[in-house]
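Hi team,

Below is the intake form for Kinesin-like protein from Cyprinus carpio. Please confirm the fields before the structure is written into the shared record.

FORM ID: S-0412
PROTEIN: Kinesin-like protein
ORGANISM: Cyprinus carpio
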Amino acid sequence: MSSQASPVKVFIRIRPTASFAHELIECPPDQQTLKVRSRKDSNKGKRNNQLSSWVFQLNGVLDNASQEDTYDRVARSVVLGAFAGYNGTIMCFGQTGAGKTYTMTGAAETYKHRGIIPRALQEVFQEVEHRADHTFSVHLSFLEIYNETMVDLLSSIKKEKSSNSGVLTVIEEPGGGVSVKGLSLHLVHNEEEALNLLFEGEMNRIIGQHALNKHSSRSHCIFTIHIESRSRTLSDAKYITSKLNLVDLAGSERLGKTGSEGQVQMEAMYINKSLSFLEQVILALADSRREHVPFRQSKLTHALKDSLGGNCNTVLVANIYGEAAQIEETLSTLRFATRMKCVQTKPSINEHVDPVLQVRRLEKEIQFLKEELSMCNTLTNRVGVSNEILSERQVEEVRSQVQRYLSGLLDEIPVNTIVCTSILQILKYKLISRASLTVLHVQGSVGAVGEVESCGYGLGLAKSSQKHQRNASPKPSKARKDKQIILLLRTRLNINAKLNVFLSSPPPKTEAFEDFKAERGSEINRILKENKALLSERTTQLRILTDVINTTKRDLDYITYELRQFRERKQGEFVSAEGEPVLEEAELSLVMQLKELKNRYRQTYEDFRSTKTEVSYCQHLVNQCRTRLLTEFERWYNESFLFPGDVLSVLETGPVRPGHIPVDKALTLVSNIQGCQVFTTQPAQLLLTTSPIMFRGRSTGENHVGG
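The structure came back. Fields below:
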């Protein structure tokens, strides 16, 4: 399933600093533009045509943005898109020490300082919990590329012996994507297990120290979340997959500024080389005239092939410094981000068909068609007819006889088992259900159905010669006999069409689910709707309280700051006769406001905690009702439309023996075929107890089952 191309989204995040170069870097209010001016150097003259300022148009500029705001603007849509079957990639690029690892992983000291990866894991398992109509499996992998060598950061966790142990290799997949052969995948069931794997991989990463960063990442890391989703309500073999690549690139370094030596210097050379190859790939992808893209130049670009211009929703976060000393590296990063913005990706839904379930479904369909043909042969007294596929020789023989007959070289086609079998395979006898209760007895001048084999069934074509016209006048031709038999057969089968369709092709689960919610499951569905409405109300209330708490907190901080500034500006303090300090009117007003805000904050926070507890309980009730509704629907659907083997065998063999069908199954059968009339020449008996219950026809006098 293809979709239109979309450009890569690019965000700029500026590292907070006390010495921000406001004269060089300007962030307009639209939060999508960044203006950079070059630093004036009196020692170097500038030509008139040399640019001294640049304007960069981006998808967003994150200046003094919190970790939560960064995740909401950058990553949330990509993570949620994975549940619809779209691949996603979020990667951080920039100078060493600019905040890439902090943006991607965050700091472990404070909960609110979590990065994109921990928040994405939380979002994934929250969605898994809320989407009760699907089953999910989540796997994690953690790849490190150090000095052009790929390392599995989770290889130390050996829950089971893997056959893929050895050197990691990037391989091409048939659909155009790539995968890493030998990289371990770990199944996780909750957020806690996922975070443990993340922390385990982080502990195995290689870090170093230089002048710009005491904890510098010396390798590129790709943390991948693999999601597989299957529907609980749909019975087909389709399922969707997606993967989220969360990439923390090592930072580019200038050896003159970092002062790296020895091993750290060699690592910096590998890092700069791989980033240079990455930029070459971006330049090739941005140029529509380029036919070849050098993905295989480095392990990094090869592993990210489907993330760069492939089947993926890609977002780049360019981390920069705001200081004047790093303005050249900042311009280099911004130019790379501008080129990245020109790259087009083509995200599409990764929909697959489970081959095992598909084979089972086709085998059931083949068995069903064979049962149909077997039932037809039994009804028409055609014993010994083969239902197997004709060989090429048999098909050629039938075709040759028909052509000779039509050209006049053959007076009559000898109808044998081969010809009859070919006709049966064409018609398939789809009008006869495997569970039909009809027993046809063809009587009268047209003869028995068993005589079909001795006449040209479907091939009784009258020739134009006078001899054949004279022979056809005294008695009905075989073609006429066949036509009468077919008309009688169609008349009988049309009476049972409604029941046959019901028994042979159950309705889709989506349609049946709507009917179930309106009838059998109406009470559970009503309770579910009430609980969802209550949950929505409490969630809205919780959101309002959250806004009030945040507003009050900002007011508290502002009043506290104003009060501190006011006290610092005072030259001294007034003292009463008793020796107690006397507050000025302005200071007293600030103190009273601060006290009132603190009381409001405490009260609102108590309401917030209480409402949050109610939201959790309401969410539990909604999930419980949804699960109950789906469980009841599955039971109802199986009982209503998917008859067990013992019921089907009874329907195919004729009258029912006492006690042969259980009471609940018989009641289900009767309740679901109301409105269908089954005319038979023998009584259709449904025995709910030891004595049969007979259903008499309204006007025909024949026995039938009806509504």
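SUMMARY LINE: The chain is about 45% helix and 15% strand.

Thanks, M.
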